[in-house]
Specification:
The chain is mainly alpha-helical. It contains eleven helices and no strands. Helices cover 71% and strands 0% of the residues.
């Protein structure tokens, strides 16, 4: 059903608030961003902003959801049981690193890491809406491969965490800490090494 002009205007207004908030959070941090400043930037009264987002935490949640929806390709990449496990893992790792190396996701990590000591709810919020979802998707796939005998039996959630951590151990760390912008060939080497190490640890058990 086509949205009415009023609904379109409301969606545009909400989107403007989210965009302004994202820029403010990334530039000033969570503590340094005020609802008043965002309202003034977009225009209108604070009451209008509060109608959409009753609190700054609600607004930050909307920013996280917006960034994850735009850049979180690891949450939608197809994990086909018909393809070789190594190929699927490479595909997933490429999508995950493409997501995590995008500037908005890097900025989200920096904001959350910098503020979580004072605002622990930010860490839970970000983890639940991003990393946890990606690891759960991978764990579901790994569980199916374990049941099929293509990986050795074990805890699929543990295996998912291990693989994700191996993928993030080099290029993502360099990007997060501003050491250097990872080159595509460096990212490709990270993926190859992670898949190789993972399959050495979780490959199917061989019969003596």
């Amino acid at each position: 059903m086509t949205a009415s002009p009023i609904e379109c205007a409301q969606d545009a207004r909400r989107s403007a608030f989210v965009t302004a908030a994202r820029n403010a959070f990334f530039q000033n941090g969570y503590a340094g961003t005020t609802m008043s400043a965002i309202s003034a930037q977009v225009g209108g009264s604070k009451t209008t902003l509060w109608t959409y987002f009753p609190s700054k935490e609600d607004l930050f949640t909307a920013v996280v959801d917006d960034v994850v929806e735009q850049y979180g390709c690891a949450l939608s990449v197809v994990l086909s049981p018909e393809r070789p496990v190594a190929e699927v893992l490479e595909h997933f790792a490429a999508a995950m690193l493409s997501t995590m190396l995008s500037p908005p996701i890097i900025n989200l990590h920096r904001v959350v890491t910098g503020e979580v000591g004072r605002f622990p709810e930010l860490g839970r919020l970000f983890f639940e809406r991003g990393p946890k979802r990606g690891k759960a998707r991978l764990a579901e796939y790994l569980a199916a491969m374990m049941d099929d005998g293509r990986l050795r039996k074990g805890d699929p959630a543990l295996a998912s965490r291990q693989f994700s951590s191996m993928c993030q151990s080099n290029s993502f760390q360099h990007a997060l800490f501003g050491i250097e912008a990872p080159a595509p060939d460096a990212v490709a080497r990270d993926i190859t090494a992670a898949v190789d190490s993972f399959l050495r640890a979780w490959g199917p058990e061989t019969k003596a």
